[in-house]
Automatic annotation (TrEMBL):
Residues 7-385 form the Major facilitator superfamily (MFS) profile domain. This is MFS family arabinose efflux permease. Pfam families: MFS_1. The keyword Translocase does not apply. InterPro entries: MFS, MFS_dom, MFS_trans_sf, MFS_Transporter. The keyword Transmembrane helix applies. Its main location: membrane. SUPFAM superfamilies: MFS general substrate transporter. The chain crosses the membrane at residues 16-36, 48-68, 133-156, 168-189, 209-232, 244-264, 276-294, 300-324, 336-356, 362-382. It is found in: Cell membrane. Keywords: Membrane, Transmembrane, Transmembrane helix, Transport.
Amino acid sequence: MTTIAPVQLTRDRATWLVYLQLGVFATYLYGLSAALPMLRIDQGVSQAVAGLHGTAMAVGSILTGLALPWLTRRIGRRAVTWTGLAGMNAGVLLVVAGTALPVTLLGYGIASGMASITLYAGMAALSDHHGPAGAAAISEANAVGVCVGIAAPFVVASAAQTALGWRAALLMTPVLTVLLALTMGRVWIPERAGAEVRPGPEGGARLGWRFHVAGAVLFCCVALEFCFNLWAAKLFADRTGLSAAVAATGLTAFTAGLAAGRFAGARLALWVRPPVLLVGALALTATGWTLFWLSRDPVLSYTGLALSGLGVSLHFPLALSRVLDASGGRPDQATAIASILAGLAVGIGPLLLGALADGFGIRWAFVMVPVLVGLAVGGVLVSSS
């Protein structure tokens, strides 16, 4: 059977707070991703060097992932999410203010590292809060986030063609953070006894092989998503002849697919078994990639990116849910490891793609995507048997 008995997803104010925190997170993520091709032009560096911004994001995520269990025990998930948002904005402002490569690398790293603790603490809180409906809540949270962040590539591309410049568009992230803090700063999910500090397993017991395979699937899913985020605009420009600024709007099509897919996925996750749903989403991504990779027509390229985004939309929520489910009731330990794996994926995936692009061209470098899809499908099938 591919369906499961439906469960109920109840959204309270605390749930909506995490959803909206993910929305602010998305404006940083897609804003800096859309800005990278223009930042590369401003700095006059190669594609591989520009890819170091992805490496900086990875290093930041890994460092904060290592600190996340300790930080959660010390100050709790609520304070962790707001601390992460504050640090994320500090990194974004560094990118806005700086022009030198070391400064922008530092900005990308700080923004990514601090944002990741908001993301993973929020996901763990939703998983605990909603129980059997946790996968649906995580998918819906990411859907809301993408709906907010979907405007970021368009805003960056539009600002790049004005006297303000693309950097001004990144200020949307701190503005939205302040508005959210003023309106919902006192809201949080009621803590259950023992939710933050768990003796025994949470302290460091060994995790089973299914957890590690689930982590490998998460790695592949994050790597391929960031390959799209950081390099799809470059391939779009090369294949269609559009300028870098206009081609950045291709990420809008990708994020539109992400938003639609995550809302649909939240519903499907209540009915369809997660392994089946994840394999289907990976297959849809491969289909969209094929259309995007082969096309020279802007309309077909937009369509391919939208289909790719529709598939990618379910990768992270479902892969993270599988990591949490395989953790044996240790969500904080699992999310910390997931953060580290995702950080490695962010660093290795785009950097390797950028290096391959320097050697073989961006089009052939993008063959990494179906390779990662195949590895992820294999991992899902093996761990679900």
